Amino acid sequence: MSATGPQADDGDDDMEALVNGRMCIVTRRSAPPEGLIRFVAGPDGQVVADLKRKLPGRGCWVSANRAVVETAMARKLFTRALKVEAKPAADLADQIERLFAADLASMMSMARKAGQFVMGAMKVDNAARSGAALATFHALDAAADGVRKIDQARKAFAMLVEEDEIPSFRLFTGAEMDELMGQNAFTHAAALAGQAGEGVVKRANALVAYRESGNDDGKSGRKGGPSR
């Protein structure tokens, strides 16, 4: 579903959002599904994040950003929106970040099997230098020299074709990737062109947006990319 266009005033914005059924209960702004998280209440009132937007029952929507989720919890907006005595877990925001991370790791594994995600400094350098890469990825604790060399490859191709550099993400430490991805953990990697590779970049951007600070309800958050 495409994003809604400019609105005449707040009343019109609320009306269109209500018709579409997707308006953040905190910011009161409508957005496409990709920019929102759907929540439902379980049988015991526990608030459940429905990232795939498939769970049955009455749902509500919150901007896909940690600070906004925390604001919804602090203001007890889930109870009002879900029409039940909602009980969000104290670590709900952390749970959601883990879900985003797991979704990204799963897509990386799928892309690797499809030949659209490569690991290792030499393969990543070649992919960035040749233009095959859609984005590069580095562990947060990767050696600076290795990251610098791959950044140079990104810059070299961008200058050659006179286009913007592809994004570079630093989302997890090596230890976090070991826990999240097991034997598929990496220090340097690249997503390549194709549906699965595009899915990796999309999910990486979603994780960055969730962690990002500087929103309307601004609290600081961990980012990790992308850089250009």
Describe this protein's structure.
The protein has helices at 10-20, 66-74, 77-82, 92-113, 121-130, 144-161, 174-181, 195-211; strands at 36-41, 47-50, 59-63, 117-119, 133-138, 168-169, 188-192. The protein has 228 residues and is of the alpha+beta class. The chain folds into 2 domains: 10-89, 2-Layer Sandwich (Hypothetical Cytosolic Protein, Chain: A), CATH 3.30.1230.10; 94-211, 60s Ribosomal Protein L30, Chain: A (2-Layer Sandwich), CATH 3.30.1330.
What can be said about this structure in brief?
The protein is of the alpha+beta class. The chain has eight helices and seven strands; from the N terminus they run H-E-E-E-H-H-H-E-H-E-H-E-H-E-H. It is elongated.
Keywords, separated by commas or semicolons:
alpha+beta; Hypothetical Cytosolic Protein, Chain: A; 228 residues; 14% strand; 60s Ribosomal Protein L30, Chain: A; disordered N terminus
Biggest sheet architecture: 4 strands, mixed
CATH class of the largest domain: Alpha Beta
Task: Determine the CATH superfamily of the largest domain.
Answer: Ribosomal protein L30/S12
Task: Flag low-confidence runs.
Answer: 1-20, 215-222
The strand line-up of the biggest sheet is 4-7-5-6
Q: What is the share of helical residues?
A: 40-55%
CATH architecture of the largest domain: 2-Layer Sandwich
Instruction: Identify the overall geometry.
Output: elongated
DSSP strand count: 7
Rg on CA atoms, Å:
19 Å
CATH domain fold name of the largest domain: 60s Ribosomal Protein L30, Chain: A
Q: Provide the residue-averaged pLDDT.
A: 88
Q: What is the terminal-to-terminal distance?
A: 28 Å
Number of helices: 8
- Estimated share of beta-strand residues: 5-15%
Sequence of secondary-structure elements: HEEEHHHEHEHEHEH
Structural class, by secondary structure, is alpha+beta
- How many structural domains? 2
